[in-house]
Amino acid sequence: MGEFKHFVIVKFKEGVAVDELTKGMEKLVxxxxxxxxxxxxxxxxxxxxxxxxxxxxxxxxxNKKEDFVAFQSHPNHVEFSTKFSAAIxxxxxxxxxxxxxxxxx
Amino acid sequence: MGEFKHFVIVKFKEGVAVDELTKGMEKLVxxxxxxxxxxxxxxxxxxxxxxxxxxxxxxxxxNKKEDFVAFQSHPNHVEFSTKFSAAIxxxxxxxxxxxxxxxxx
Lengths: 105, 105
Known about the structure:
Chains A, B: This is Stress-response A/B barrel domain-containing protein. 2 copies of one chain form a homodimer. Chain A is of the alpha+beta class. The first copy, chain A, has one domain: Alpha-Beta Plaits (2-Layer Sandwich), CATH 3.30.70.100. Helix content of chain A is 38%, strand content 34%. In chain A, strands 2-3-1-4 form a 4-stranded antiparallel sheet. In chain A, helix 1 (18-31) packs antiparallel against helix 4 (75-87). Chain A is globular, with a radius of gyration of 14 Å. At the A-B interface, strand 1, helix 1, strand 2, strand 3 and strand 4 of A face strand 1, helix 1, strand 2, strand 3 and strand 4 of B.
């Protein structure tokens, strides 16, 4: 069994201070040891028709599913999720065991 | 400047041979040197309301944006994309320079 991924794509509401939210997320994953790695980005290349209004991607990696479950129920995550949810217009979450086909050299 | 990411989430049409398509994608990234790493997975945990019908995530990493551009225009990718597009009911693509906040220990 490989790593477990928590993948989130988001469209924020207009006027939201996105910087504050990404800083908050950075703080959150630093506080919670169960999160193995975290990276995020804002789309700069995709065509509008393929982006469907989504602008940001957030990808968290865990060593195993149990670590993800622990993260989900962590009080800091629960608290942050409330704030985050209020700022989003649309979101898709996918949680999955990852199949690594080509590893970085 | 960090790595460049190509993130895709997909809902396949009913009756599509998903295994064949993921095998084809694995073959594709193996053939094209510009792709630094590739992993994918099928959601097993997200709530239906948060998944919005999407089932699969595909995550490609490139050393730089130019490598992504080269991948996009590679004839093998162009050929595969035609086959892939015919099999999908819904898709979101996000392409972005990645900010790595927490690196694997």
